[in-house]
Amino acid sequence: MTNTVNNMIGIDIGGTSIKFSLMDKNGAIEKKWSIPTNISEKGMFIPKEICESIQTQVLNNEAYMIDGIGIGVPGPISTDGRVVLQAVNLDWYDLPLKDLIENELGIGVALLNDANAAALGEMWQGAARGKENLLFVTLGTGVGGGIVLNGQILNGCHSAGGEIGHIPVRSTENRLCGCGARNCLETFSSANGLTLSMRKKLEEVGESWASLSAPRIFSEAEKGNPLAQEVLAEFIDILGQALAGILNTIDVEQVIVGGGLSAAGDQLLKPLKASMDRYVFPQIKHHFSLKKAQLENEAGSYGAVYAYLSMNDLN
């Protein structure tokens, strides 16, 4: 890569590692690396260590000239895009990350929520390429999401747009969510929610498994285990209702599913599409697609770079 503008760095900050991607404005990746996430002292060293890593890996090399940096963070961002309001896993509260990085490196920064970054990444270079209206859903230990309308992230008035994991579910159960509420969607339709449902079902019938995990439940259901099939069907029905409700509200053309549970592929996606079709408004039924995310761990970095390009009219 020669000296030129429009070379970018995309950063995805996670609870255990921080991933970096050096790419051009078309999304071609030149270099990737990562560093451990240092959560000691309430994560106070992370901004400095990000800057040091960029300096060492890129800026000290005269072959690279960086036009901007995009950063995806696991938490809500202030409406002006400058402050991480809260990142529980990093113990950050009201951290002015954009200013800290810009002041240290002298390079412009776009800061956004990591799920929103992944949604933009899938739109730009992934499963939703060529689409401008989509719902991105991450199914992992929790349930996350990002909503893109007319090519722009819906962040909301309080930086809480796309928090689909906290849609309330009507249930006779009383499941406590990490947000403090009860019976949020992610207490039922995440990997943790699925394993909890399976554990409850096994207890009802007086059975137990030596190991209990979401992949095990999918595997047992595929083998014909009626208990696993029942629990998985309920999981998919609850998720399908919630996603159909979102589609009835925003009427997008595509739903992209990522996160660890998306590894189940058609075993998840086919019945989920059928469930959504049962609940969506007739005008929408058969007029949206449901796809597995393509970019996996790269989605956040791609989306963070895309956000910078969009904010600075470079794409």
From TrEMBL:
Citing just one GO molecular function, the answer is: kinase activity
Which top-rank group of organisms is this from? Bacteria
Key words of the record: Kinase, Transferase
Q: Which Pfam families match?
A: ROK
Record-linked InterPro entries: ATPase_NBD, ROK, ROK_cs
Q: Does the keyword Transferase apply?
A: yes
Keyword Transport found: no
Q: Which family does it belong to?
A: Belongs to the ROK (NagC/XylR) family.
Instruction: Fetch the PANTHER family from UniProt.
Output: BIFUNCTIONAL UDP-N-ACETYLGLUCOSAMINE 2-EPIMERASE_N-ACETYLMANNOSAMINE KINASE (PTHR18964:SF149), ROK (REPRESSOR, ORF, KINASE) FAMILY (PTHR18964)
UniProt protein name: Glucokinase
Q: From which source organism is this entry? A: Enterococcus florum
